Amino acid sequence: METKLVKKTIEYDLQEINQLLDEYKSSLETLNRSPKTIEWYTAILRSFFGFLKMNGLMKPVSELGKNELKAYISYRQNAKRWPNNPHISKENRGKL
Asked: Which of 81, 72, 59 is nearest to 6 (CA)?
C-alpha cells in the first residue's frame, strides 16, 4: 500500500513539474527569449528533476531546497564528461 502511495506521489510531482516547466517556457517566450535559450534553460531543469527522481529525492516542488540543489551540483561537478566521445583519448575523458 505504501509503495502505491509513493508511486502516486512521484507521478503527481512529475505532473506538477511538467506543468511548471510549461508555464516557465511560456513566460520565457513572452519575454521574447531565443528558442535556444528556452531549450537550454528547460533542459537544465529537466536534468535536475531527472536527477532527483533517479536518486529518490523527488518531493513536491514547494518542499525542494538547498540540500537537493547541493546534491545536484555535486553530482554535475563529479560527472564524467564526454564519456563516449571518440575524439578524446580514454585517459582524458571526464577531465576539463
From this structure: 59
C-alpha cell at 65: 531546497
Q: Which has the closest alpha carbon to 96: 41, 70, 88, 73? A: 88
C-alpha–C-alpha distance, residues 45 and 79, integer Å: 17
Cell of 44: 537544465
pLDDT at 33: 96
Q: What is the DSSP letter of 80?
A: P
Spatial CB neighbours of 96, under 8 Å, sequence gap ≥ 6: 81
Instruction: Provide the phi-psi class of 82: left if phi over 0, else alpha when psi is between -120 and 50, else beta.
Output: left
Give the model confidence (pLDDT) of 61-72 as tens digits: 888 999 999 999
Cα 70 from Cα 90, distance rounded (Å): 29
pTM: 0.69
Query: Where in the chain are the domains?
Result: 2-87
